Amino acid sequence: MGKLKIGAIASGSGSNFEAIVNACETGILKDKATVEVLIYNKAGAYCMERAKNHNISYVLIESDKHRGIREEFDQKMIEVLDKYECELIVLVGYMRFISEMFLNHFKGNIMNIHPALLPSFKGMHAHEDTLAYGVKVSGVTVHFVDLHEDHGPIIIQKCVPVYDTDTKDTLGPRILKWEHKAFPKAIELFCDRRLHIDGRIVRIDGEVKL
């Protein structure tokens, strides 16, 4: 069986994108997966430079200039991802919802990462919300994507301590370090067919260590 073909979608810096690429090139995914293409929706986003540095194809589909319905935008992405025969889609800092059409096209094989322990602190301001609430533990969640924000079946979570002195500028990097480990591990489990979805529960064959 050949390597799993991954398509990545990003809106910003793309550090999780690069972590996955590095895992494919020299890490735990080296013999299991390849990143075929990056789609990014914000002109000037640094994720494009990361793709260029790794000789990975990249395509800009600007959401700011799109005035149609969401399905029309998603269809443009589908055409690119199908061209590269992508089997797993990873959302690496993609700041838009996907449509039911997009979800169905890829049979639910879409993963996202969130910098908090879902279902707590959904949305774009997870670190700020975490600190404002005063929790003592935050972390990382990798999950399958469904039609709701930060809601789909959870694959991996990793706890990260929150200190009294933390700001988003200190908590964020501490969590990001684990994001870069958790996302490739979730993809490895997918490649190894160790993930089994039962309702909203993801059952995993064997022990998982990050």
Q: Can you describe what's shown?
A:
This protein has 210 residues and is an alpha/beta fold. The protein has two domains: 1-107, Formyl transferase, N-terminal domain (Rossmann fold); 113-210, 3-Layer(aba) Sandwich (Rossmann fold). Helix content is 34%, strand content 25%. The chain is built from six helices and nine strands, in the order E-H-E-H-E-H-E-H-E-H-E-E-H-E-E. It has helices at 15-26, 47-53, 70-83, 100-105, 126-133, 168-191; strands at residues 4-10, 33-40, 57-60, 88-91, 110-114, 137-144, 154-161, 195-198, 201-204. It has a seven-stranded mixed sheet, with helices on both faces. Strands 8-9 form a two-stranded antiparallel ribbon. Helix 1 packs across helix 6 (168-191). It is globular, with a radius of gyration of 17 Å.
